[in-house]
Amino acid sequence: MASRWWVVAVVSLFALPMLLVVIIGSDDSQTGCVSGALSGALASADSAHVDGYSPQQLQIAQVAVAVGEQHGAAPNVIVAALMAAMQESSLRNLSNDAVEGSSGYAHDGVGGDHDSVGPWQMRASVWGGAGIDQLMNPAYQANWFYNQADKVDGAASMDPGELAQTVEVSDFPDQYGTHRREAEALYMALRGAGSRLPQLASGPARPAGSTDTMGCGGSHSGGGDFGQAIVAAAERWIGLPYVWGGGDTAGPTTGLDGAAEPGFDCSGLTLNAVFAASHGTITLSHTTGSQVADSRGVTVNINEKQPGDLIFFGAGVPHHVAIYVGQLAPRAGAEPVDMVVHAPDFGVPVQLAPLWTTEPMVVRRIGPKPTPSEA
User: Fold this and answer.
1) Residue 5 predicted with pLDDT over 90
2) Whose CA is closest to 284, among 342, 367, 343, 374?
3) Using CA of residue 103, residue 108, residue 113, residue 116, what is the dihedral sign?
4) Could you report the per-residue pLDDT of 7-17, keeping only the tens digit for each?
5) Orientation angle between helical segments 138-150 and 55-71, nearest 10 degrees
6) Maximum Cα–Cα distance for the chain, whole Å?
7) Among residues of the chain, what percentage have pLDDT more than 70?
8) In this protein, which residues make up the domain named NlpC/P60 (predicted)?
9) What's the CA gap between 206 and 137, in Å, rounded?
10) Is 269 exposed, middle or buried (0-12, 13-18, 19+ CB in 10 A)?
11) Which of 63, 128, 252, 327 could form a disulfide with 124 if both were Cys (CB 3.0 to 4.6 A apart)?
12) Is 24 helix (H, G, I), strand (E, B) or coil?
């Protein structure tokens, strides 16, 4: 049967003034593009492209929606699950160097928040009794979220951000709410996944290397675990506002102007990400000029850039800095493009964006000093 394509304008279920264009394809001659991080659960003929999300992020989102629908969760509970995964991992299945064995299972990056792993950042010291093979399975984590939500009185009518915080118990309780519009739009784009996909019960995660964990021709590979950790640390803040002077080692701040809502500027985001990835051993200054000259970095040819590298823009003293994420295909079968995560400018939130090449660039790779045995 020939492929059929539709362009669907999806308006949020909750009547938000937001329009999201979703391209949904169906081709009976092939299965959809599946990430190894999903343990083969999404071997479906349906795929989706949503502007602003990689195929791998959409796979995690599809798991959240499918498991929620199969669980019988109310729409706002599913939205809460999406908001939680957006904030906790930027919809990525993260391993953690502090959790033994987690990197042995398929993952989309490396996190560094205590001993947390996976899309919903479950702590191994608390929930590890099930085994790391379960914790690294996104479907298992999604089931965990909905099971925890079942224990909350009135969950079906709660504000999704409040419910996400009740389940996750974050040190940043207000951050879940920043993802509400995007989560509602994603839910509208992906709803019905529970009936299209097989029952996504818990089960062991797939070993690392068993498939291309990024799938669809996109890749966060390269850059090493430290570079991956920088990317993961920065992507946790996607959706927060640009704030001049905002951001420090602890997280978003109100900046030099005392903004009403905390956020980041470009160098504040990079200093926070590097500090988090290095477990507090590398603290960059809060200006692009000092960061590009930091002695803990080395200059890298633009053609040899890897995830986690800092890219500085502008001739002379740079005026902007972004973190290279890797090459991501905007949809299955499309050509991968270079992507960065950055805090762009006033009125534009922290976001993933294609790397632009319209001005001079310097690539710097920041890294911890080698130990005597490595030197």
Assistant:
1) no
2) 367
3) negative
4) 233 333 333 33
5) 40
6) 62
7) 75
8) 224-367
9) 8
10) buried
11) 128
12) strand
Domains assigned to the chain: 4-196 (no CATH), 224-366 (3.90.1720.10)
d(CA 360, CA 22): 34
b/e code 308-344 from CB counts within 10 Å (16+ = b): bbbbbbeeeebebbbbbbbbbbbbbeeebebbbbbbb
Among the listed residues 103, 139, 176, 97, the one whose alpha carbon sits nearest the alpha carbon of residue 368 = 97
Q: What is the mean pLDDT of the chain?
A: 78
The pTM for the full model equals: 0.50
Reported as half-sphere exposure (CB side, CA atoms, 13 A), residue 59 has a value of 31
If one compares 221 and 168, the residue with the highest pLDDT of the two is 168
Q: Are 137 and 204 in contact (CB under 8 A)?
A: yes
Token pair 């000092």: residue: 290
Rg, the chain, Cα only:
20
Dihedral (Cα; 102, 106, 108, 109), 10-degree rounding: 30
18: left (phi over 0), alpha (psi -120 to 50) or beta: beta
- Give CA–CA dist 181/45, Å, rounded: 28
Residues 6+ apart with CB under 8 A from 32: 42, 43, 44, 45, 46, 47, 332
Question: Of how many residues is the chain composed?
Answer: 375
**Three-state SS at 332:** coil
Amino acid type, 88: E
Do 347 and 230 meet the contact criterion of CB atoms below 8 Å apart?
Answer: no
**3-state SS, residue 321:** strand
The gap from C-alpha 282 to its chain's centroid, in whole angstroms, comes to 22
